[in-house]
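If you are new to this repository, start here. Below is one unmodified record pulled from the training split, so you can see the exact layout before writing a loader.
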Amino acid sequence: MSGRVQKSDSRETRRAQIQRNRKALGALVDHRGYDAMPCSPCFQHNRVCKMDLTNSKRCGECVKRGFSNCDGGDVRHKKFLKERGADLIRRGMQSVDEWETEERALEAQESRVIEDLSLWGAQNESDWPSLGTGFVDLGLPNMGSSEAS
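And here is the target side for that same chain:
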């Protein structure tokens, strides 16, 4: 039996070690943490909720008491996401408003040009070269080919 490994810790000793580690981590979170919006357990029991997300995802009180349902970090993240979503929607609405403003300005400019053309005697379907625009007969530039001069 000399080759067998024996467990030296009893069940109570292991439990005491876990409890000691839990209390030490809870004290560390309380010491280094910041006051946060209370998680559900802290809110129900009127406790101060301190978070330190670098050391634990749970608040100090939940770590000390062994609660696994601490949602304090989630509440902060959800609040951030909600604010971020509202900001993105606001920016999107501003972009749509800017686009509509530009479109209205372009439509107004187009209507002024059509009005000016009708004053000059041009018809809706007009012969553009007769208006003295020499660039119309050049056609569209060919972007794909490169010609050597």
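Two things worth knowing about this chain: Residues 5 and 75 are 46 Å apart (CA to CA). The beta strands are 34-35, 50-51.
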